[in-house]
Design a protein that fits this description.
The strands form 2 sheets. The chain has a 4-stranded mixed beta sheet, covered by helices on one side. Strands 1-2 form a two-stranded parallel ribbon. It has a single domain (2-112), classed as 3-Layer(aba) Sandwich (Rossmann fold), CATH 3.40.50.2300. It is an alpha/beta fold and 155 residues long. It is built from 4 helices and 6 strands.
């Protein structure tokens, strides 16, 4: 996982939650020691840190970024360095932003189904306003939007 974090203190945040779930999923898939590489958003040498990561001999063959915005930056830097995506490096983002789906970009991404989440949030709020006191646990499973950055045209 590649994480451009908003700083070093992200103990309770969407970044941290995605990292924890990433670790659980990788462990379940048989990769209990899958690394997380972090670069702070405000790092003065951020672009160089991205380049160093991509040029590293220990660079993985696939990277899951905590957001599409970070994945797009990584995709751009990979292109600048002449790396072939996905042949040299597969990249997957998270959010399934409209930009990710553009033909020229083709970024694979996890879609958290924001329309359904928004609808459920509104309905849950209305039931709370209506008197519900018991907590409600809701789960919306994300879906994988497979695009060019994660799979080669040959399959």
């Amino acid at each position: 996982m590649f994480s451009l974090t908003p700083g070093s203190a992200h103990a309770v945040s969407v970044v941290r939650e995605r990292e924890l779930d990433y670790k659980k999923a990788m462990k379940k898939a048989g990769f209990p020691h899958a690394p997380i590489h972090r670069i702070a958003l405000e790092a003065p040498d951020r672009l160089q840190a991205l380049r160093n990561y991509l040029l590293s001999a220990s660079r993985p063959k696939a990277v899951f970024c905590w957001s599409d915005l970070d994945a797009l930056q990584l995709l751009h830097q990979a292109s600048e360095l002449g790396l072939r995506v996905p042949e040299d490096l597969a990249i997957i983002g998270y959010d399934n932003s409209p930009t990710a789906g553009l033909n020229q970009i083709g970024l694979a991404s996890m879609d958290q189904n924001s329309m359904t989440l928004g609808k459920l949030a509104g309905e849950t709020l209305l039931t709370r306003i209506g008197g519900r006191r018991a907590p409600v646990k809701l789960l919306v499973e994300p879906q994988f939007a497979n695009r060019r950055s994660a799979s080669s045209p040959e399959g």
